[in-house]
Amino acid sequence: MLKVEGLTVRLQDKPILTDVSLQVKPGEIVSVLGPNGAGKSTLLKALAGDLLNARESVKVGDRSLAAYSTAELAKVRAMMPQSIQLDFPFLVSEVVEMGVTFLPSQQRTDYIDRALKLFDIQSLKHRDYLTLSGGEQQRVQLARVIAQASFQAEQHPRYLLLDECTSNLDLAHQHQVFEVVGHLAKSQGIGVVTALHDLNLASQYSDRLVLMQSGRVVSQGTAEVVLTEARIRQVYDYPVQVMSHPRGWPMVIPV
Amino acid sequence: MRMLHRPKLTLWMLFLVLVAVSLLSLTKGTLPLSPTQVVQALFGSQLDPQAYLVIHQIRLPRLLLAAFVGAGLGVSGAAMQGLFRNPLADPALIGVSSGAALAAITVIVLGSGALGVWVGFWGALALPVAAFIGGALVTWVIYRLSTYRGHTDIALMLLTGVAINAIAGAGIGILSYYASSDELRTLTFWTMGSLASASWQDVWLVAIPVILVSATLPYFARALNAFLMGESVSTHIGFNAKRLKLSVIFLTALAVGAAVSVSGIVTFVGLVAPHLVRLLLGPDNRWLLPGSVMMGAILVVTSDMLARTLLSPAELPIGIVMAVLGGPFFLWMLIQRRSRITL
């Protein structure tokens, strides 16, 4: 279980996160929602161990992140930041390989191929990363992170942190990514935390939602609990209507 | 994109090219020697005493000096481009070389006066140690100034280099007022980069640090690869980014300091060599770092051969030859990048 309790983060005396508590079970998909500047990315960074001051408050099981070495932590969690700037002409296979750089080389090829196949980008394997479109680059980075999260299966509790990982993707690929992530979470017991802007995508694929505003958690629970008209209106300061998708989950529609 | 896909074979081929260029370079000079004479003299045959003397006293130390200076600048350039996550970083361009040069020139000019204690303590090592400290200091300052939240601003990096080059230039200018006419001659020659005063002692001074750095840097190759996607990404993958940064700053300053202390400021080697290797082998640091060792040596040995022969019997400073070759190359790189992404 990935756990954070009463986390407060300040940057230059400005509170970014205030008293945030969150638990993520293995196999569960939790989506963090909220307007720009609500603290979604900061929360994910804290969970990833990027914020040194917050390491003590984030726990995997009973062990705080501060007790992990960098190499150990890489086996426990994989993280995809919002944007990645790479200025060198690596091949797609080499980029994905970096996620499994600590495996023996034979296994590495295996994991690379599997990860590429998950996102349907085997054909890009020998392409120069810099010549890809933004959406293709994002899927390559996802493949890298997934490859990292799925190696050494069953040995460790594992968590996948995805910060707006579908921001450059078209409709079909957005859903494809969440299908892949959802399947992986269930089949391998990986806990997933995503930061998202698309409320409906979150509603459809998440087990739980966490709604944030100005660094505080406003509400968390199932989509039905969190996505109410009054609450969305208050947090986003925009009128919405909540309807039910024909297949069952709540849908937020601006009015 | 990549011309060769067998990295180890390519590295061996680069080594063979280096050997070939070196042998060719040994034949050139006021006393032309045949390749046979060169090889005989190299293996210690004294059948031709004049050839033996020319090779062992003049041309071989100079050749080795060129090769080690080139290797050190080449591998430092490659590692620095990893540290700054940008292919335009070059030790001379961003001011590391001039920082090292300023420190070394300070020791030359003030060595007999204000810095007498320093020189007394370090002896023959006073110059290279000062150059190392100057280089490390500048790298650290540039890194701190141009990197914000794990993101290196390329414009800021190059502009910091401009500022540091100007400051170092001013410092060297001021020191030249205090220099004796004898010191002044070495000083001017030095800011242009020169291998003319090659001695066996210089060869040792540059060979030991450069071999050490060239052997150590590839140990960080995988970490550097990951670092190219950003400091936090490399941490997520499992590398200790802080250790990597400190090691790269320390090792590149060591190699650049050593190179500068024997040859002055030789520009563009650290930019051109890694770029050529990337065209051959791609950006993977496991091959890029050893490749840049070889390519840097090839470049400087070749340029030095040109420097000695183009205006023979007069001689050009190697720094000028490298700038003539490297300047247009840098412009070409900028044009290439402009068509692809914004600078």
Total helical segments of chain A: 9
Helix content of chain A: 25-40%
Which shape of chain A, going by the Cα principal axes? globular
Measured by residues with Cβ under 8 Å of the partner chain's Cβ, the largest interface is: A-B, 30 and 25 residues
Oligomer: heterodimer
Characterize the largest beta sheet of chain B: strand count, sense, and whether it forms a barrel: 2 strands, antiparallel
How many beta strands in the DSSP annotation of chain A?
12
Topology pattern of chain B, helix = H, strand = E: HHHHHHEEHHHHHHHHH
Sum up the overall morphology of chain B in one term.
globular
Strand content of chain B: under 5%
Short description:
Chain A has 255 residues and is α/β, with parallel strands linked by helices. Chain A has nine helices and twelve strands. The mean pLDDT of chain B is 87.
Structure, explained:
- The complex is a heterodimer of chains A (255) and B (343).
- Chain A has 255 residues and is of the alpha/beta class.
- Helices cover 35% and strands 27% of the residues of chain A.
- Chain A has 9 helices and 12 strands.
- In chain A, the strands form 3 sheets. Chain A has a 6-stranded mixed sheet, sandwiched between helices. A 4-stranded antiparallel sheet of chain A has the order 2-1-4-5, with helices on one face. A two-stranded antiparallel sheet of chain A has the order 11-12.
- In chain A, α4 (105-118) crosses α5 (134-150).
- The radius of gyration of chain A is 18 Å and the shape is globular.
- The mean pLDDT of chain A is 91.
- By secondary structure, chain B is mainly alpha-helical.
- Helix content of chain B is 75%, strand content 1%.
- Chain B has 15 helices and 2 strands.
- Chain B has helices at residues 7-27, 35-42, 49-83, 96-110, 116-122, 126-146, 154-178, 181-191, 200-216, 221-227, 231-237, 241-263, 269-281, 285-309, 318-340; strands at residues 147-148, 151-152.
- A two-stranded antiparallel sheet of chain B has the order 1-2.
- In chain B, a hairpin with a 2-residue loop joins β1 (147-148) and β2.
- In chain B, α4 runs antiparallel to α6, α4 (96-110) runs parallel beside α7 and α6 runs antiparallel to α7 (154-178).
- Chain B is globular.
- The two termini of chain B are 21 Å apart.
- At the A-B interface, α2 and β6 of A face α10 and α11 of B.
